[in-house]
Design brief:
globular; binds flavin-adenine dinucleotide; alpha/beta; 15 strands; 256 residues; binds FE2/S2 (inorganic) cluster; seven-stranded mixed sheet; three-stranded antiparallel sheet
Length: 256
């Protein structure tokens, strides 16, 4: 399904189940074009098929966009550390996404809303460049109806039909409607967005160990061998890709 002009959601049917949990990633190979990591965007409660929402940026992603239904790709995984959902129990969850960064967050959102009694309220704040760049446009109206979910959107540049906020996603964070001292924040998006959203969360009083950031550094092996994905003392393919602000705050320029 085409989400935007350059972002598409692919449905994959693995020969053998890939037992991923929200936050983990899978390495996809397009034969002849290479391998790249992507995070499943569908619910981990359903694994006979899974979805990946992918932005076309280069060689492997370009090749993925030229595949036809029924074509075969390679997949290995799951890799990385999932969101620690047990730690989230009983707490309000404040999720902030930017651009295609909503893809990994969708897997988390679906896991949380699958067992709503376990968690507090779920706040989802999402920013895209323009209304045409919003992913999951057909799903968002349904998400807004889910009890305990509070969702708000912004775009950097509006069109004549846009009725919501205009501005970068931090414009949705002036009023944070949960207890910052106790709540969990989860962020995924482009590095510059992560930097400013994280700063806003810290300023608002979120605890460093309660801010979860998707640190999608360059990866190669995906299994802790090549060290391409090193971020300070961490290998993001093994220790991440989700790391807390408490873990990375002493690293120089973590958002590059
Ligand atoms: C753990 C992890 C999870 C990821 N999950 C997703 C996901 O769910 N969906 C998704 O779309 N992407 C995701 N990515 C990013 C994805 O892996 C890259 O976009 C992909 O590797 C690009 O491969 P390529 O061969 O198409 O591009 P390349 O040919 O390697 O790169 C071509 C050009 O695009 C630039 N480029 C590479 N990646 C990006 C990017 N993300 N944004 C803008 N420019 C880029 C490069 O700098 C280069 O100039 C994830 C990355 C990691 C590490
Ligand atoms: S990608 Fe090779 S060590 Fe992380």
């Amino acid at each position: 399904m085409d989400e935007t002009p350059n972002i598409r959601t692919f449905v994959l049917k693995p020969e053998q189940e890939i037992p991923f949990l929200a936050g983990q990633f899978v390495e996809l190979t397009v034969p002849g074009f290479g391998e790249a990591p992507f995070t499943p965007s569908s619910s981990h409660f359903r694994r006979e098929t899974f979805e990946m929402t992918i932005m076309k940026v280069g060689r492997a992603t370009g090749a993925l966009f030229s595949l036809q239904p029924g074509d075969v790709v390679g997949a290995r995984g799951p890799f990385g550390t999932p969101y620690p959902l047990q730690r989230f129990e009983g707490k309000d969850i404040y999720i902030v996404g930017g651009g295609v960064g909503l893809a990994p967050l969708r897997a988390l959102f679906l896991a949380l809303t699958h067992e709503p009694d376990k968690y507090g309220r779920i706040f989802l704040r999402y920013g895209a460049r323009t209304p045409q760049d919003i992913v999951y446009r057909s799903l968002i109206p349904e998400w807004q109806k889910i009890p305990k979910v509070d969702l708000d959107l912004s775009v950097d540049v509006s069109d004549e039909k846009w009725m919501k906020r205009v501005g970068v996603v931090t414009c949705l964070m002036d009023d944070i409607p949960c207890d910052e001292k106790k709540s969990i924040a989860v962020v995924c998006g482009p590095p510059i967005m992560m930097k400013f959203v994280n700063q806003r969360l810290v300023d608002a009083g979120f605890q460093a160990e309660n801010i979860y950031l998707s640190m999608e550094t360059n990866m190669s092996c995906g299994v802790g061998q090549c060290r391409h994905c090193r971020l300070g003392p961490y290998l993001t393919c093994k220790d991440g890709p989700v790391l807390t602000w408490a873990q990375i705050k002493d690293i120089e320029n973590p958002f590059v």
